[in-house]
Amino acid sequence: MTAKALRSNSIFQGRYLFHVHTWATDGKLNVDDYFRFARDRGIDRIIFLEHIRRVPTYDVDAYVTAVKAGSHEFGVSALAGFETKILPDGSLDIDEKHANAAEALGIAEHSFAGDSDQLAGALTACFLRYDRLRAVRGLVWVHPGLYFKKHGLLEKERSRYRDLLNQAVQAGVPPERNMRYDLVSQPVFAELDPACRVVGADAHSADDLERYVNWFPAQQTELESRP
User: Fold this and answer.
1) How wide is the angle at C-alpha 69 spanned by C-alphas 84 and 143, nearest 5°?
2) For all residues of the chain together, what is the average pLDDT?
3) Residue 31 backbone class (left: φ over 0; alpha: ψ -120 to 50; beta: rest)
4) Which residues of the chain have pLDDT under 50?
């Protein structure tokens, strides 16, 4: 998916709340808490990204059902998606059934077990591997660079990091501007094609939602200025 094609992706248009976690994994809020927040704040769409592995630790069908029921009850559009880890071969730690059912999918690299060379190879392979998913739903690199940040490598590996961001954009996988970890940074985010700018709350708690609210007016200005 090119930058031009991403512009028409309705998932990331309008007043959206992207990347939220629930009690199903490590969040402190339930599904209905997010719907109440969205309804009260005039948000058009919630894009849930619950953590998942190939062998899930929770009832995935119940999670998806709760999202659909909440959308109907509160009158707020919602998508049931997943955040999953990248593996050394560039695949994702999610089984095919759940990958195919996901309405949005977040690629996470922060807990990658290898070194930065191996991570770069895995990400490059991953961006190319999931063409069929990009064609029908949101595929996003979430909190991009968190591996580098956690290992104190953001400055040392700055050139590689920027190259990976560019690869992601060229592959049609927008790098998330993550409000929890300030990744990608605002200056770098501003340099991205506006069509590839996706912002995520990475919300686990009410405090995370308040952080998102503080940024929300700027999001609306940016969205309205898109060509």
Assistant:
1) 25
2) 88
3) alpha
4) 1-5, 7-8, 136, 220-221, 223-227
Look up the CATH number of the domain holding residue 204: 3.20.20.140
Q: How many domains are contained in the chain?
A: 1
Domain residue limits at 205: 3-224
Q: 177 pairs with which residues across the strands?
A: 199
Q: 3-state SS of the chain: helix, strand, coil percent to 5? A: 45, 20, 35
Q: Residues for the chain: how many in total?
A: 227
Query: What does the pLDDT look like over 47-103, one tens digit per residue?
Result: 999 999 999 999 999 999 999 999 999 999 999 999 999 999 999 999 989 998 899
Q: How far apart are alpha carbons 223 and 15 in whole angstroms?
A: 9
Contact between 39 and 72 (Cβ < 8 Å): no
**For residue 189, what are the CA distances in angstroms to 24, 73, 192, 202?**
31, 35, 5, 17
pTM: 0.90
Cβ atoms 174, 199 nearer than 8 A:
no
CA distances from 173 to 11, 63, 83, 129 (A): 13, 25, 14, 11
* Cα–Cα distance measured from residue 18 to residue 105, given in angstroms and rounded to the nearest whole number: 11
pLDDT for position 118: 97
Tokens of 218: 């700027």
Beta strands, E only, the chain:
16-20, 45-51, 77-85, 104-108, 138-141, 176-178, 198-200
Over its C-alpha atoms, the chain yields an Rg (Å, rounded) of: 16
